[in-house]
Amino acid sequence: MNIFNRYKNMKNKILLLTLCLTFNLFGDHHKGSSDKGERKMPNPNHLLSFKECKETKDGIEGLLSAAESIWKEIEMDPENEEKWIEASVLVDLAANYSTVYDVWCKDMINHRMKMRIMGEKKKHKKEMKKEDG
After folding, report:
1. What's the rounded Cα separation, in Å, for the pair 103 and 96?
2. CA-to-CA distance for 122 and 133, rounded, in angstroms?
3. Spatial CB neighbours of 71, under 8 Å, sequence gap ≥ 6
4. pLDDT tens sequence across 87-96
5. Angstrom distance (rounded) from CA 104 to CA 29
6. CA 39/CA 33 separation, integer angstroms
7. What radius of gyration, in Å, describes the C-alpha atoms of the chain?
8. Does this model's pTM top 0.90?
9. Phi/psi zone of residue 81: left (φ > 0), alpha (ψ -120 to 50 degrees), beta?
10. How many CB atoms lie within 10 A of CB 55?
C-alpha cells in the first residue's frame, strides 16, 4: 500500500511537470500577433518558428540537466524508486522533444546557417574586389 501511494504521488508530480513544460514551450506563440492567431512562416512545411525551435532546444537542455541531477541522487541512493521513475520520465520527455526538434527545426536551422555562411562569403568576395580594384 505504501509503494502504491508513493507511485501515485510521483505520477501526479510527473503529470504536473509534463503539463508545465508543454504549456511553457508552446503556450505563448500568440503574443504580439496582429494576424489574429495565424502565424506567418517562411515555409509552409515549418510547424514551429525559429524562436519556438530555440525554446524547444532550451527545454531539452533543461530536461537533460534535471535528469543528470536526478542520476546523481540515484548514485547516492540506488534503492530510491521515485528517483528512478523521475529520471526515466525526464529522459523520455527529452527524447520526445528531441524528436520534435529533429523533425520540425533541424532543417530550418541548417538552412538558416547555410544562408548566413553564403552571405558572409559574398561579403568577403565584395571586400576582396574592392581591395583589388
Report:
1. 11
2. 16
3. 87
4. 999 999 999 9
5. 16
6. 8
7. 22
8. no
9. alpha
10. 17
Cα distances from 98 to residues 17, 57, 70, 77, 133, in angstroms, run 17, 8, 19, 29, 50
Q: How many CA atoms lie within 13 A of 55 on its CB side?
A: 14
How far apart CA 62 and CA 64 sit, in angstroms, is 5
**Closest to 89 measured CA to CA, from 7, 11, 2, 5:** 11
- Helix, strand, coil percent values for the chain (each to nearest 5): 75, 0, 25
All three cell numbers of 120, joined, read: 558572409
93 sits in the region (left: phi over 0; alpha: psi -120 to 50; else beta) called alpha
Domain positions in the chain are 2-26+44-132
Around Cβ 111, how many Cβ atoms within 10 Å? 13
The answer to whether 33 touches 39, Cβ cutoff 8 Å, is yes
pLDDT in tens, 30-83: 454 444 444 554 555 567 788 888 899 999 999 999 999 999 999 999 999 999
- Residue of 2, 19, 15 lying closest to 81 (CA atoms): 2
